[in-house]
Amino acid sequence: MVSPCDYCRRERAMVYCRSDAACLCLPCDRNVHSANALTHRHSRTLLCERCYSQPATIWCAEEKVSLCQHCDWIGHGSSVSLMGHKRQGISCYSGCPSAAELYRIWSFGLDHPPIQESNCKQVSGLMSINENSVSTYWSPSEANNTIDLTGLDMVHDLEDVSKFNTWIGSSSASAVNSVPCSFVQTAGSVTPKLCSNEKKDFGICKDNSLNEDFSVDDVDLSFENYEEIFGDFYNMSKFLEDDDMDGLFEMDMPATNSTCQSEFIQEVKSMQASSGNVVSADSVMSNPGMNADSNLCIPSRQAHSSVSLSFSSLTGESSAGDYQDCGISSVLTNMVEPPWLPACLDSSSFSPANRDSAVKRYKEKKKNRKFEKKIRYTSRKVRADMRKRVKGRFVKAGDAYDYDPLSQARNC
DNA sequence: CGGGCTTCTATTGCCACAGCGCTAA
DNA sequence: ATTTAGCGCTGTGGCAATAGAAGCC
């Protein structure tokens, strides 16, 4: 039974917002979550196409359906034949991603992008981070859970793991959650570990460092007219045939190097220490399809290293569980390789010159980045500065006060 | 090792009201 | 089509209350 959008009650619900516990159609998803900065951070994912009530965590490439853990378990865990289905993790996104980015996120098995560039209208929005699994899950009979390290053409001499998060077989919880890797923080070092039963210290980097160069800056993403774009989402073959998605987004392209990674680790540690909370990202977008299948134009490692990520408010406004559910925790723990990447980037666009330019732009933006309070209305500030208070609260003009900002005594 | 206590730090809510943005006349 | 009036909402800063973490016994 197809679920109607909880908001408009007219369109078919396609995404599930964990924060709102609501099933939304894409236009409403955008409307609701562009309302303010808080709703902007709500993590959403596809809706399970079986039960239409739970967030999907799995994309079954064979059946071409998105499934929640429960439905996946029922569907794939019970039958030997179905167990062999090739599946990918579906992760969450937040903010207001563009049509192209949503396409990239959910491009499992798509041959063509859903839109043309002209459909992509830029408005403010946080690009989110792809939570990409780091390892490849195979059925035990195939590879004994070995991690597929193919395709790791290390530009920066990093030891890394495959970006593919496709697996076959009955998915374990860790696999389904697409959180195959996390860090164990020890004194002075960060050691990655597999969350699955099989531990393998594959080493994010030789010096246990991560890439600092995640852009905190916003990346504008958005699109309008979801209907046009995703109206037939489930019939992917009808998507438009313009697959030239390059250039749709200008992305910061930070370099990956061990020094920066080390600094970044320290930043993360610092944030963890200061927040006392699980470090989480406010904007998380995943794109398992984009690199999970070789048919989908797997980007090069170099390309991965050049992707900008948008982090802010790392203190976690949503519950840790929310982020964990959608694998965001592993975004930070797996940040060795920013996974958010256009599906079919031409490798030539990551030439050394472009890369240097991108790095330069990134550095400049980072340098100029300010987290200080921003006054939007100076007139209101002036008024507030002049206003008299009682215990910090504004009082009516003429009322007795205990704080006069204009008082010389207070100002000294 | 866990509980209770203290200390420290960070976050949140409150207040009045000018002015913004929108709608209706 | 333009102007005006009215209304609801936003944002501004300092303080107190609250929450949470850390340290100690």
UniProtKB/TrEMBL annotation:
Q: Where in the cell is it found?
A: Nucleus
Question: Where does the B box-type domain lie?
Answer: 1-47, 43-90
Q: Does the keyword DNA-binding apply?
A: no
**Residue ranges of every copy of the CCT domain listed in the record:** 355-397
User: Where the protein is mainly located, per its record?
Assistant: nucleus
Record has Zinc as a keyword: yes
Family from the record? Belongs to the CONSTANS family.
Q: What is this protein called?
A: Zinc finger protein CONSTANS-LIKE 10-like isoform X1
Species source reads Dioscorea cayennensis subsp. rotundata
